[in-house]
Amino acid sequence: MIKTHFKLILIPILLFSLMACDQQPTADAVQTNYSKKMWSFISEMPKVELHIHLEGTMYPETVSILANRNGFDYFKTVKEVQQSLDSRPPGLFGFLQHHEKQVSVLQTQEDFYTVVYDFLKNCKDNNIVYVEFFFDPQIHTSRGIAFNDVLDGILAGREAGEKDFGVKSELIMSINREKTVESAFKMLKDAEPYKNQILGLGLDNGPEEGNPPAKFEAVYALAKNQGYYLTAHNDVDEKDTVEHIWQSINILHLDRLDHSLNAMEDFDLLREINRRGLCLTGSPVQRTTDPEPQEIERIRFLLQHNICVSLHSDDPGEFASGYLSQLLFNFQQSGKFTKRDMVLLMLNAYEAAWLPINEKKMYIDEFKTWAETQGVNIGEHYFNKHKL
Ligand code: ADE
Ligand code: ZN
Fold first, then answer.
1. Cys bridge to 317: 58, 84, 246, 355, which one at CB 3.0-4.6 A?
2. Pocket test for ligand 1, best of 55, 204, 318 (most atoms within 8 A of CB)
3. Please, what's the b/e burial string for 53-88 (b: 16 or more CB within 10 A of its CB; e: otherwise)?
4. Cα(36) to centroid of ligand 1, in Å?
């Protein structure tokens, strides 16, 4: 009697488990598993970040802490900062409207220290092994903050961050293009005592219309003479951007191009970029209101045409795309890029870095070895194309 009962219970269980074994996992389950593995692959990837603005690394939480600490009557709550981010118009104009307001909460040396320190902690959490970051002195000095306060705060934060998180970093001092040439010269002069601590010179802010790269020809000539590496922003789809990219190459003699993705519209320009071994720092950022990361197709096109394009987070505190791991993952998922594509894009970042050649080679060898452990073998040829 007991035995019969037992069979009655056991048989359906056995049948059910046999059926379950036979069943294929659902497409959703496969996708989830694939995405999980991809997330591990991307988050564990040792990364280089070359296009990130210190002032844009502040999350709404930090902005409101600093706003309260410094007695501002705006951005007192995270919600208020988030509302301002969510309601800004698209493009550079809308970005700058919020950005300049949020930057104003930075007041003291200690504020700069805190922001750099937090930023380097986030770099570590994102497995960023090397970062070159922009800072914009004029945006601060024009508000009455001393150049030395900005620099001393940044350098102290950088030293502490490197010690505590082991992230190597370098500084790119950026000109605000809407300001005068005289003001840019003054900034270079102010930076003289810090020259050994600043690796590069950049050009950002806006509007770009009326403030082309050529405006700063003499400043860039002097900076080159002083030993700075040179780069400049040509934000995507800004007026006359292709002409501005030509000017960046022929007049400013840049070592790297920020954004500059519209170069794909001019094949002569692409050939020249490749001939000179120049790299483009793309930033497929995403606002809360964007359905997917920006610039996916332009970056795909450039990658397919063997242009040295890489991916960066630009202003992680001001975009929903956030820091590099999240940004790379969103980009990969939305554009259905392969692991190999993601490795090539990151190799381009390593290649574009302003590292001494031996150090760069060491980083690249380590990165390639890591990629091999992930089943992606790039081989030798790739890096002979550019400067190495
Ligand atoms: N400042 C911070 N991010 C910038 C960007 N992407 N373009 C111009 N200026 C900026
Ligand atoms: Zn930028």
1. 58
2. 204
3. bbbbbbbbebbbbbbeeeebeebeeeeebbebbeeb
4. 32
Closest-CA residue to 347 (of 331, 333, 365): 365
- How far, in Å, are 134, 158, 172, 362 from residue 356 at the CA level? 19, 20, 16, 10
Q: Is the CB of 205 under 6 A from ligand 1?
A: yes
Whole-number Å distance between alpha carbons of 368 and 366: 5
> Is the minimum distance from the CB of 312 to ligand 1 under 6 angstroms?
no
Q: Nearest Cα to 45, choosing from 310, 359, 377, 347?
A: 347
The edge-to-edge listing of strands for the beta sheet with 233-234 is 233-234, 257-259, 279-282, 308-311
Task: Classify domain 47-387 by CATH number.
Answer: 3.20.20.140
Has this prediction a pTM greater than 0.85? yes
Pairing state between β 229-230 and 200-204? parallel
Strand partners, 169: 131
Which ligand is in closest contact with the Cα of 205? 1
Question: Which residue ranges make up each domain of the chain?
Answer: 47-387
Q: Give the DSSP per-residue string, 241-295.
A: HHHHHHHHHHTS--SSEEE-GGGGG-HHHHHHHHHTT-EEEE-----TT-SS-TT
How do residues 271-305 score in pLDDT, each as one tens digit? 999 999 999 999 999 999 999 999 999 999 999 99
pLDDT digits over 49-97, tens only? 999 999 999 999 999 999 999 999 999 999 999 999 999 998 999 999 9
Vertex 222: Cα angle to 217 and 224 (nearest 5) = 95
Structure tokens at 368: 């390639």
Contacts of 198 (CB under 8 A, 6+ apart): 171, 172, 173, 191, 228
Q: Give CA angle at 219 (216, 225), nearest 5°.
A: 140
Dist. CA 345 → ligand 1 center (Å): 21
258 in contact with ligand 1, CB cutoff 6 A: no
Residue 22 has pLDDT above 80, yes or no: no
**Token duo for residue 159:** 């030293």
Q: CA separation (Å) from 146 to 109, 178, 190?
A: 9, 20, 10
